[in-house]
Amino acid sequence: MKEFDYIIIGGGCAGLSLAYELEIHEKLKDKTLAIIEPREEYKKDKTWSFWKVASHNFEDCVKKNWENFTVNIPKKTKHLKCAVYPYQSVDSGLFYEKINSKLKENKNISFFKNISEINSKNSFIFNSVPSIKKDYRNLWQHFCGVEIETQNDFFDDEIFNLMDFDCDQRESVHFFYTLPYSKTKALVETTWLSKMNDSSQKDYDHQIKDYIENHLNLKNYKITYKEEGTIPLFYPSYEETKNKINIGTAGGMTRLSTGYTFLNIQEHSKYICKNIENISKIKKFEISKKYQFLDDIFLRVLNKNPKIMPNIFFKMFKSSPKTVIKFLSNKSNFFEDLSIILKMPKIIFIKALFY
Ligand SMILES: Cc1cc2nc3c(=O)[nH]c(=O)nc-3n(C[C@H](O)[C@H](O)[C@H](O)COP(=O)(O)OP(=O)(O)OC[C@H]3O[C@@H](n4cnc5c(N)ncnc54)[C@H](O)[C@@H]3O)c2cc1C
Description:
The chain is of the alpha/beta class. The protein has a 7-stranded mixed beta sheet with strand order 6-5-11-12-13-10-14, sandwiched between helices. Strands 8-2-1-9-15 form a 5-stranded parallel beta sheet, covered by helices on one side. A 3-stranded antiparallel beta sheet has the order 3-7-4. It has helices spanning 13-24, 92-103, 204-215, 262-274, 289-304, 309-316, 321-328, 334-341, 346-352, and strands at residues 6-9, 33-36, 47-51, 62-66, 68-73, 76-81, 87-91, 109-112, 124-127, 140-149, 159-164, 173-180, 185-194, 222-232, 244-246. The chain has 3 domains: 6-45 and 90-131 and 236-281, Rossmann fold (3-Layer(aba) Sandwich); 140-232, Alpha-Beta Plaits; 289-352, no CATH class. The longest helix is centred in the C-terminal third of the chain and has 16 residues, at 289-304. 27% of the residues lie in helices and 26% in strands. It binds flavin-adenine dinucleotide. Flavin-adenine dinucleotide is lined by residues 9-15, 36-39, 46-50, 128-129, 227, 229, 231, 248-250, 259-262, 265.
């Protein structure tokens, strides 16, 4: 059976981002790479959005940039603007196409459907398939989004809605998210932060229809694309093994308070690529301990007090948009952290330390 210097398990966002980073930095000229990916074909299955606080390789896959956004709770709306860190949406269809056509040029890179097709004993492995144990206490971000098209101009595409909490919360945390790609096209998503133990929350089609027709007051539209997902708001169990690094969701690249993962994956890929010659000896790359600690407290508060969360998210945006964006994107300094922390209800957060 064939052997490879490197194996990437899972050719999704993290696996392909890493392969691309290694390829463009010519790290696969004299090394071989096997990518294990069971899917039959690549097609658009996700829209990755984030604040661009760092550069990445996929600017040409960005569908749209926004500098303006809103956050809503019932009867209140905050308008925010941040030109230095625009919000971007990457089309996964364009991303897969760009990377796969680049990787095809290198004969040292091969794709397999199953790891049993190769000899993996002596290879260095990058694994992006998470091992998730079922635990009823765990929180998830689960959501469904549809892209819709209207015949006439309807949306203001200069401004997107990050979180609209003016909706049914059902003892959990629930908001809608709207990304207008043009005056006639938008992604509308229903998002829940919950333990996923209430099946009524998964009535996504009904929630979206009701929101579009009765909240946005749009009756005439057609659905052109749909995506559904679950993001664990806990770290998948991690087994330290020599010659293996977990990447992507499996590698703890999700910011637990927000679900944002894409840009962390890009930074992890850059880190691995920079250190690839010394890969078995490098320090584990992780989201800084400061954010791990703060997110842990935040999720404890959310778990115990879902009803107050819309207000808490709303209050967070009393700090300047730049400060909040840096905080949510793991780029804030001590004073920026403090500015956010001071906006939070102190007693509830201090109590959460002892749950
Ligand atoms: C619908 C959706 C929307 C999201 N939107 C955002 C967003 O807007 N912003 C953001 O920052 N994050 C977002 N995320 C979170 C995160 O960025 C994505 O989940 C991202 O795809 C994670 O990359 P990954 O490589 O870890 O996992 P994936 O991209 O899921 O890749 C894992 C790959 O492993 C393959 N695989 C599965 N089983 C096996 C196996 N046994 N052996 C080998 N391969 C296997 C799968 O087919 C898949 O291709 C979203 C997640 C989802 C699900």
